[in-house]
């Protein structure tokens, strides 16, 4: 009988390990389609672009291996540095979207009659496509009949001025990006612990002190997400530039994503375009890895 009792834990352990293996197998089978799709649509294009950047190819004739020639030409191109500078301008001004979104979220986070309609009006720009936003602001900036002319009193050729065009397009891009950050903060505000806020008020905290020491620490996940998505949006900006300026005048408003498209579609330089894509991917990868490490450090 003692031998039988000794065998019971062993049998139970075997059944537990078998059940664990079955769960792991089921989880793997459920994840397999998504992983395969991710590998096909994300991982494979990344490695294929890196490999293509070492070739000279027009998309039709056989590829010619050129080594680092595409990268050497890229780093000696004046347009590349103009695009890089414009990406930096996009990044700096696009970072206004999270604080503006927070201000709108705090304003709209009220229990007032009709506030849902107001929220819908604030969120409306985000659901518009980039093409629509680009067309609306192209009409707004038009120096002959645009709304800007009526406001200022005289026509300003924003999209025709090499010094103003990038700032005009960034301002247009902030219009839908700010409501997106606003929605992220509104979602975060719904998860704030009201007991903590009430306790802080009883201790005398109010106004900016309440916001800075009580509310913002609880909105840290929303802030992290808003900043990361805003930076990625600034680095991959394309649609508004294509609609509003086409990279002009004289490539003054081009960015890396549009420069990549321009070389591939207009000039059939697929290898050179791939080298631009690799550089842009490397810039985004550095930023994403930095923020992921910071997030993991905070989680620990």
UniProtKB/TrEMBL annotation:
- Keyword Cell membrane present in the record's keywords: the answer is yes
Q: List UniProt keywords, sorted A-Z.
A: Cell membrane, Membrane, Transmembrane, Transmembrane helix, Transport
- GO CC term, one of those recorded: plasma membrane
| Biological process terms in GO annotation | transmembrane transport
Q: Where is the ABC transmembrane type-1 domain?
A: 83-293
Does this UniProt record's set of keywords contain Membrane? yes
Topology of the protein relative to the lipid bilayer: Multi-pass membrane protein
Q: Where in the cell is it found?
A: Cell membrane
Which ranges does the record mark as transmembrane? 26-47, 88-108, 120-141, 210-233, 272-290
Q: Which family does it belong to?
A: Belongs to the binding-protein-dependent transport system permease family.
Q: What is this protein called?
A: Melibiose/raffinose/stachyose import permease protein MelD
Originating species: Paraburkholderia humisilvae
